[in-house]
Amino acid sequence: MLGAGASQGFGLPLGSGLRNMIADDLNIMFDEWGRSLESGSHEIVEALRLTVHQPDGRTGDINRHRHAAVQISGSMRLSGSIDEYIERHKEDALKVQCAKLAIAKAILQAERNSTIYADPRGDNDVFERAADSWLAYMLRDLTRGLGKAALRSAFQNVTIVNFNYDRCVEHFCYHWFQRVYDLSESESADICKSIKIYHPYGVLGPLHYQSPNTAVPYGGEINARRLIEIADRIKTYSEAVDEHPSFVGSDITSTNRVAFLGFGFHQQNVDLLGAVSGPHVTMRCYATTQGVRPPRMELIRNHLVSAFNVETANGFFFEALSGSCEDFWAEYGDVIVQ
Questions:
Q1: What is the DSSP string of 43-91?
Q2: CB atoms within 10 A of CB 335
Q3: Do 280 and 274 meet the contact criterion of CB atoms below 8 Å apart?
Q4: 283-288 and 257-260 as β-strands: parallel, antiparallel, unpaired?
Q5: Distance CA 172, CA 101 (A)
Q6: Span 137-146, average pLDDT
């Protein structure tokens, strides 16, 4: 289970940073003549204009959308997260639409600024600052002793549930297999496609190796039409509950070992796990809990027992490390992949 902290190591923002980006982008203000944009995101404004464009070719009025965007901006820094805000206002279509557009822009921009962005000009190395990341450690440990022909077997019993919108895992894995195993792009793509990765709240879009015709490049160009396409893929909590695929439920039910990396244990996310989980006789959970104070630990434990429907309290085992994802993998990596 991956939370925002799992992507932080690649340079993506945590909740507060994302909130600030969204607040700035949605503070849409024009000059007194309504012609020049003084604050807010130009790309989001253009996306809103495309959204309200009239069938007869006339330009629509975005003022209602702008008003909703400014309301979000004013509340964003007081909210726990943008996901919580959307859930609170899920009946307000304009606010949901504006919030999803802002998420799309912020995450695509964050991918571009991440340490693993692959500049098409070849000016940077994906692995320069990520060789010691938890993901590099995990891939190394899962594939230890395996040749090319056996790579698929390494991921047969692995399911990644990623609560983030970014594609750091998919992007990094694709490059890692090419570098470490000297695979071709197509060979690496085949291996990556065999890894079960689920994004409960949606994802920016497929990478080129996943779907060439509908691809959204990692950290790709930000433009109005792309933001609209991405926003349509982002889900609220209620939408995630309604649309979760059955394979996630079966995988969670059949496992008795779960690792939480950079996971905030927000109530709605834990509840979402409960919505797809079945009963368990025993469950072992390993987690990073950096910044989590002791009184909340007992609450987290109780929520997980309920979410995984563990039959008895004695059947639930919870081990936590108050450190980075890299520290965690150094401590528990061998236990998790055994």
A1: HHHHHHHHHT--TTSPPPP-HHHHHHHHHHHHHHTTSS-HHHHHHHTTT
A2: 12
A3: no
A4: parallel
A5: 25
A6: 95
